[in-house]
Amino acid sequence: MAAALGAALLIATAPGAATPGAGADPIAGEERIEARTDSSTTSVAPDGARTLTLYAGPVQLQRGAEWQPVDLTLVAGADGVVRPVAIAHDLALTPTGPVVHFAHGGSAALDRPAGLPAPRLEGNRATYPQVHPGYDLVVEATRAGFVASLRRVDPAAAPVPQLVLRRSAEAAPDPADRRALTETESAFSRVVAAAPPTEAFPVPFDTTVQTTVRHTDLSGEPDLRVGTYDGTAVARSVLTWDLGQLAGRPVAAAALRVHQDWSSSCAARAWEVWTSPPAGPATRWATQPAADRRWATSTQTLGHGAACAPGWAEVDLTELVRSWAAAGATSGTVQLRAADETDPLGWKRFASAESPHVPHLVITLG
Predict the structure, then answer these.
(1) Which of 13, 59, 57 has its CA nearest to residue 33?
(2) φ, ψ at 186 (rounded to 5°)
């Protein structure tokens, strides 16, 4: 991805504990699972209280009558090929590079002329040292495919080589996206292999829109960005949930939980939650849905060193979720944005639905 994505993209996100339903049983303790879908879980506590958790992307896979948590952890097999523990697509990190075959057809692979050294594995990341002089290759498994980045480790290294993504005909991007995917800058080169969208406005869904990224669909990225990294470029993020199980049900409480992977500092800088119409894979900054009402503000700032380590942030959205339930809404969309979109100290990155930490709504049913 181009320099327009901002210097923060060059900083690796430390793997953390998996989202409930994304590497461990979604419900711990004595609670009983009453119902599941690939992106939701309904649990019942011993006292009879029900909790509906709605995720911004799939966190579970159905295998016959059983449900298995999605697990992006990379593990080397006996054949020497590295694969995630459990995802919907067939992703393999082979000695010549990552290849993904999408569940609904098509494939994508990193186009490399030579083999790769043995990777260092950490969570959903594989790091291949010195694939080019002064550069490591980092491959991240995502729920929709993979992200590959060349990252400079030697300040004196030559300009970054360009990564190229090879796609099958079934999964070919449009020409504008193909141009954007090959943008590079002097210390960073990045490509995203994600399953092609099957509908214009998928639900659930999340994405980032950014003033400096005009052509590229960012919904395959493992992060959601808000604010500005330089006082000029601005990013916002949009999340849509499937509310089919909520319509007409009483809501006692509701909270949005998002994992803050990175912030530009530990200084408390406000970010806001607005409602808006849905977004889709074709949504860009120029076509983003117009936010209509601010429902919550938080100054919680995490992800900048030991003083404010990465972690979960929570925002009360009880009033909003009650309004969705009362209206019988089938989906609900929020927009995350920095309160001050000119302040670089407000630049934040949250984990997206492609990451190990999936954004979710925790709804206590009355």
Answers:
(1) 59
(2) -70, -20
Q: What is the pLDDT of residues 34-60, one digit of tens each?
A: 999 999 999 999 999 999 999 999 999
Cα–Cα distance measured from residue 330 to residue 244, given in angstroms and rounded to the nearest whole number: 5
Both tokens of 23, joined, read 């590497």
Q: Where are the domains of the chain?
A: 3-365
C-beta of residue 328 within 8 angstroms of C-beta of residue 337: no
Question: Residue 204, preceding bond cis, omega within 30 degrees?
Answer: yes
Distance separating alpha carbons of residues 163 and 304, to the nearest angstrom: 29
Kindly report the pTM of this predicted structure: 0.87
Structure tokens at 58: 């799939």
CA separation for the pair 193, 109 (Å, rounded): 8
Measured distance CA(19)–CA(16) in Å, rounded: 9
**What single DSSP character describes residue 112?**
-
Place of tokens 């339903």: 21
Half-sphere exposure for 167 (CA within 13 Å, toward CB): 21
Dist. CA 38–CA 70, nearest whole Å: 9
Distance CA 37, CA 241 (A): 13
Of 57, 25, 20, whose CA–CA distance to 38 is shortest? Answer: 57
Burial class (CB in 10 A: 0-12, 13-18, 19+), 28: exposed
Contact at 8 Å (CB) between 9 and 192? no
| Residues contacting 323, CB < 8 A, separation 6+ | none
Strand partners, 103: none
Q: What is the pLDDT of residues 150-192, one digit of tens each?
A: 999 999 988 888 899 999 854 444 433 433 333 334 446 889 9
How many Å apart are CA 116 and CA 93, to the nearest integer? 10
Residue type at 194 in one-letter notation:
A
